# Entry
Amino acid sequence: MKSEQTIPPLAGNVKCDYCTHSPWFTWGPARFSKKTVTDRLRLKYPRFQDLGQIEEIKVVDTTPHGRPVRLRLADSRGRGIELEAENFRLTLDPTGRILRSTFFNVQTETARFVFADGRGFGHGLGMCQYGADGMAQAGGNATYILRHYYPHSRLKRAY
# Structure
């Protein structure tokens, strides 16, 4: 269940084929111990106090392009809580420099989680900075670039 209303121009999910030159086009793997994941979730979200150590992270919802949107975090008894992937990412890594986006695959090891096959750097909404640069380098003008990243918006002259 979404807690916020979607604003069409800011809905995201725009495929970007122009950012392969970004240093963060792919990243990872990033590793966090299960204890670290559990401790950080408990610190930020009191509802995690009632769970044991987090033993499983499953993606329960994705964008049409496969970016995780919601995760289910569960303890060894199967008790779980769903959380928006972006909130999870920023709780686990507030700097955003290790888990660079929510576009990852989660692998479970004995004592840790591995976030592999990471792509991108950000929240997945709005304009991809490297993609906009790539479009401009390919000859796209500002109008073309803005219409690509904000397909449900209207451009109007303000003056």
Q: What stands out?
A: The radius of gyration is 18 Å. The chain has a mean pLDDT of 88. Residues 62 and 68 are 4 Å apart (CA to CA).
